[in-house]
Amino acid sequence: MAMPISDLVFTSMLLQMLLYGMYTCLFLEASYLLIFRRKKPKVVIMMIVLNTIMWSVATTNVAMSMNKNAVRFLRQNGIENVTVFDEYATPEIYLQLVLEGINIIIGDSLVIWRAWLLWNRKRWILVVSSFLLLGTGVTVANLTYALSASPTTPDNLFDDPKLSTWGIATMMLTTMTNLFATSLIAYRTWSHHRLLRSLTGKSGIVQLCKQNGILALLIESGVFYCCTWLATIIIFATTNNGINLMLDVLSQLTVRVDSFPLVPRSPLIIGHISHPNYHPCLHEIYA
């Protein structure tokens, strides 16, 4: 038996609040670590700015979602009158789409930036990534326009060919971007690990367990994020109302760990690993 739309909306609201609370804790920790560094190079200043922008966008998104659902449940009796959840063509939803698109593009850009550093600033990575990011921006804009011109009932909403096309295109592009960047990071980490073993033996690996752990976290979070988007694509393609829950959850997952400027030491690690003369046993990295 399918879950009623009102239950789905309420569940998504709870999950969104939970994820937002977790993200706020990470934001505060990251801000503390970044702001109170003794030295603040340009990369740290950039992280502080992007960190603040992404948190502000996520806060605006969740505030609009809470306000919208509060009106539906408390003023419009959404538990008994489920038709109040059928309204999609509203300025609030358009703005939420744009805000989520902003966080997606910023998050994807940060992941690409990490991969680009790991690969010694290869130009082809920037070229491929630029096309993917540009495509994501275009599809988000067209998705917003298609939603504004679509019918307001859920069945027709899913059946609208323009909406389905732009919606799946947006999700596919951000998934491809993260698969591309995560694969680059994973391969670079694996090749670095193999080189380390050939140069120093197993004992040398212990010395770098922390930095390898950070890179492993970036890879694992990237894989999890891609899997979440793939699940969302499947749910959307099967016209399941669960898409409402997934999209609300993803509005907070767009600020995932692999794009989150939480790890101040990761730029240092990336810089050392990507350096052509890097020898792991001769360097010690401080946070």
TrEMBL record:
Protein name, per record: Uncharacterized protein
Keyword field: Membrane, Transmembrane, Transmembrane helix
Organism: Armillaria solidipes
Membrane-traversing stretches: 13-36, 43-64, 93-113, 125-146, 166-187, 214-237
Highest taxon of source: Eukaryota
